[in-house]
Design goal:
heterodimer; A: 555 residues; alpha/beta; six-stranded mixed sheet; 15 helices; elongated; B: 342 residues; mainly alpha
């Protein structure tokens, strides 16, 4: 299959070889799912701002009709996935780890599946401006279908500074059980390649790599066969070792190109962009067939089904309807996981609808999860650090998360954790490590919001204080100036007054000197002189002692 | 704080009990050699230590209001008891063993927060305590079996429980110091290695220290088994053994008359027990890759230094405890480079 020169691959730290459980859902082709009676379409199926409903209750909508417009830059619209009547716009259970509700547009379908008329087939995309292509991809409501749900058009805007050299399609699909991408690659390789070419055009990328885990030979073969001779010159399909989490964005980039994307930065800064294969398919549908994103492939698998398989599911289909359609055989209670066993989360309410990011519905019989062994203290065995693809020290993160030491935990790079669950999987003490990290992250975010709030409040308060201070200062200066002005007016008069006063003082001083000087004492006899001295002595004695009695009365 | 949605939703294969039981399994060959060369004492001491350990463990768990079952079955008390017993002489008063074990479990383990929270290796804390408090009892060993002095099970247990041996007038008549101790004392008395070896038959085993070489060799085998099963990682034992070997060979090269050879240090005393079973105790060791190398080297160097120049015949317990002190700091300064930080 490959030429003589297999491409050089790089290795990322850690990782796990997991039992794949993939074949159980790959024996059948992708089947169409039911048209449910009600479609529940959340206005938030992506990362960013929620879309704003543009329809009202009672309005009839058609398939592919835009029913909620994008709000702001990081947002995409939502489209009706079948025709019918809007019966409610309200909070409904949505699939989210928190189990909270979200605003949804509920459509009662009419079974006609009438399509909204599209504009005429537009000019072929190679003649279109990349900006125009991005706008169309945005209008089609396309987000990353690998699970994160980040608006795709943003990741197709390289920005002014970054030159995108390499465009990577992620077909690794490393989580156990999930096969939706593998099946899509097997059945629709041409569409995926078309989508890739459109992305390449939008990004003006030089070369394209498609990374697929080597446990999917059928998918690799299908894509290889679909490649034309000219495409082979710039598109490379590369089998990567099956090693969870090979499909993590930065792990795949590392494996294929050797580039280690710096922490807290986007791959675009290193000239690489990575998209999911299902996203490429959706783009081809949007640009070549004018079809917005209204369906996706969902793997419905796990122990509750006789025949786990993949379905083309209309977005908004309640999970319980899909499960019933797929034929749940387990009569007891089920644990329903959205996503894979490693990174997925338990769906609290099966009425929650399938959204753009629902790649897999995994069922577990609860009696199995009940036997989950008790959690013991961490014995610091370090297995977690050995398998961590982010090269973190999970045991230290756990220690500080447990102690709620949120400063220290950031010293150990909590925010570089990708929550892949490898540490959790190998922990001999069965500590739900990722739960602790999610908890710590949420706490830190909440604290940051609090600080921001209190910062704003403090700034306001400080501004208020400074305003008062300034006013006081201004008042004082004004007062002082006024006083100075008054003083200047009086200055001349003062001068005259002081001159007169000085003259008077001089006269008085002269008089005083004359009075004090005893006159005609030169010719007195010795006895007379003696008498005068005695009198002087008595006088000084008297003046020293007499006035004190009055003062002493005060304590 | 923890919601019911726990990922990953897959079953893991390992657990703490399994790890501890594999450690115990790896100890078996070494213990068998001990039994062969030094008689029933290792079994008697092990039983005394295990009973004490489990008694103290349940008492402390109850006092701390912790569930008994998951912690009693985790196997950690068993490992602590066996590691302690591995270092006790055959003829050894039961109550000293009880003191050591009780101190290890109650003070070194549970007062610090129980499994996973103890900064110091509990077995080594207990061992260091009695090493300081009862030095005479700790250094008197039966000669290895080859010399024909091994006593019967009943005589042994009689001594351990009641303090005397029937039909033997003097305790000193049947016991002697360990090879490490002998060499240390004789070197101190001014003899050279050659003279010491000539005068003591029990030192001239295959690798010096007859009996001890077998015990260490089989413990090495157990350690390799743990490495193979990935219960322990290679860095600590390798760096510890290498550092002992390097210092010993340098000293021996410089002055072979006064410094024993590399093999004597590697296969004498508690070297292998320390390298594979004690220094690798994950709770108290360093956990970063570079930190483990530093930690292992530290234990190796300190063991040699205390052995050769210190006041005790063997230095492992103190070396481990000293490095336990340093482990958190070592970990802090040897954090691996996180992905994306170049």
């Amino acid at each position: 299959m490959r030429n003589n020169n297999p491409p050089k691959l790089w290795r990322f730290h850690g990782g796990l070889t997991l039992p794949s459980h993939k074949t159980i859902s790959m024996s059948a082709t992708i089947a169409p799912a039911i048209l449910p009676r009600y479609l529940v379409l959340p206005v938030q199926q992506h990362i960013g701002a929620a879309a704003i409903p543009t329809v009202s209750i009672g309005e009839r909508v058609l398939k592919n009709q835009n029913i909620a417009r994008a709000d702001g830059l990081v947002s995409v619209p939502v489209h009706a996935s079948s025709s019918g009547t809007v019966v409610a716009i309200e909070l409904r259970a949505v699939a989210h780890p928190s189990g909270l509700s979200g605003l949804c547009i509920v459509i009662e379908t009419d079974g006609k599946d009438e399509t909204f008329p599209t504009s005429d087939a537009s000019i072929p995309y190679p003649q279109q401006d990349p900006a125009q292509l991005r706008a169309r991809i945005r209008d089609a409501g396309i987000v990353g279908l690998g699970g994160a749900g980040f608006p795709t058009f943003i990741k197709l805007s390289p920005g002014a500074r970054a030159q995108i050299k390499t465009l990577i399609l992620n077909g690794a699909e490393c989580e156990p059980y999930i096969t939706c991408d593998a099946m899509l690659m097997q059945e629709h390789p041409r569409e995926i390649l078309d989508g890739l070419l459109i992305m390449q055009h939008a990004l003006q990328a030089q070369r394209c790599l498609i990374g697929i885990e080597d446990n999917k030979p059928a998918a690799i073969a299908a894509l290889m066969n679909a490649l034309t001779v000219t495409e082979k010159q710039f598109i490379e399909i590369i089998a990567v070792p099956t090693m969870y989490p090979a499909g993590g964005e930065k792990q795949l980039i590392r494996t294929l190109t050797g580039i280690e994307v710096p922490a807290q930065t986007l791959p675009a800064s290193r000239g690489v962009i990575c998209h999911n294969v299902a996203t490429a398919f959706a783009i081809a549908q949007a640009i070549l067939k004018q079809q917005p994103l209204t369906t996706r492939v969902v793997t419905v698998t796990g122990s509750a089904f006789t025949q786990p398989k993949n379905y083309w599911v209309r977005l908004g289909t309640p999970m319980q309807d899909l499960l019933a359609h797929a034929g749940v055989i387990h009569t007891g209670s089920l644990r329903l996981i959205m996503g894979g066993p490693m990174m997925g989360f338990t769906v609290m309410n099966t009425a929650a609808p399938v959204s753009k990011t629902t790649n897999c519905l995994l069922t577990q019989t609860t009696d199995k999860s009940q036997t989950k062994p008790v959690t013991l203290p961490c014995i610091r065995c370090g297995e977690c650090a050995r398998v961590c693809p982010a090269q973190l020290l999970p045991q230290q993160l756990y220690w500080h998360a447990h102690a709620k030491d949120f400063d220290k935990i950031q010293d150990f790079h909590l925010f570089d954790c990708i929550e892949c669950g490898c540490c959790d999987y190998v922990c001999p003490s069965h500590i739900p490590l990722v739960q602790y990290y999610r908890f710590a992250k949420t706490e830190i975010w909440a604290k940051e919001r609090e600080t921001q709030k209190s910062d704003i409040a403090r700034q306001r308060h400080e501004f208020h204080l400074s305003r008062i201070e300034r006013k006081k200062l201004e008042d004082e200066t004004r007062k002082r100036k006024k006083m100075e002005l008054l003083n200047e007016v009086d200055a001349e008069e003062d001068q005259k007054k002081s001159a007169i006063e000085a003259a008077l003082q001089r006269v008085q001083a002269k008089k005083a000197v004359q009075q004090l000087q005893p006159g005609s004492t030169e010719n007195l006899s010795d006895t007379q002189q003696q008498l005068i001295q005695d009198i002087d002595q008595r006088r000084t004695l008297y003046t020293e002692h007499a006035p004190t009695s009055n003062k002493d009365t005060n304590p | 704080m923890i919601t019911k949605s726990t990922t990953p939703a897959t079953e893991t294969t390992t657990n703490v009990t399994r790890i501890m039981l594999l450690v115990v399994l790896a100890l078996v060959p070494g213990f068998a050699a001990h039994l062969y060369f030094f008689g029933w004492g290792i079994i008697i001491n092990s039983v005394i230590c295990i009973i004490t350990a489990y008694f103290c463990e349940s008492m402390m768990l109850r006092l701390r209001r912790r569930p008994l079952w998951p912690f009693l079955t985790d196997g950690s008390a068993l490992v602590t008891a066996l590691l302690l017993a591995a270092g006790l002489p055959s003829l050894f008063p039961w109550w000293i063993a009880v003191i050591a074990t009780a101190f290890a479990i109650i003070v070194a383990k549970h007062l610090y927060g129980g499994l996973g929270h103890n900064p110091f290796n509990p077995a080594m804390v207990g061992y260091a305590l009695i090493l300081i408090a009862f030095p005479k009892d700790m250094t008197l060993w039966l000669p290895a079996h080859a010399d024909g002095n091994t006593i019967s099970f009943f005589a042994n247990i009689h001594f351990n429980l009641l303090g005397n041996i029937p039909n033997i007038t003097s305790f000193d008549a049947i016991t002697m110091a360990t090879p490490l101790d002998t060499i240390k004392t004789q070197l101190h008395n001014g003899l050279s290695m050659e003279q010491i070896n000539a005068g003591h038959a029990q030192l001239s085993g295959a690798l010096y220290g007859h009996g001890w070489d077998w015990i260490n060799g089989l413990l090495l085998l157990g350690g390799l088994f743990l490495l193979y099963r990935r219960i322990i990682q290679w860095r600590i034992p390798v760096s510890m053994l290498l550092s002992v070997a390097i210092i010993a060979s340098i000293a021996n090269m410089v002055d072979s008359a006064h410094y024993a050879g590399v093999l004597f240090h590697l296969f004498g005393g508690a070297t292998m027990l320390g390298a594979f079973f004690i220094a690798t105790d994950p709770v108290t060791a360093s956990t970063t890759p570079r930190g483990q190398i530093i930690y292992g080297c530290g234990i190796g160097i300190l063991t040699y230094v205390i052995r050769v120049w210190g006041g005790y015949p063997d230095g492992l317990a103190f070396a481990v405890l000293l490095m336990n002190f340093a482990a958190p700091t070592i970990d802090y300064y040897t954090q691996p480079r996180v992905f994306g930080y170049k």
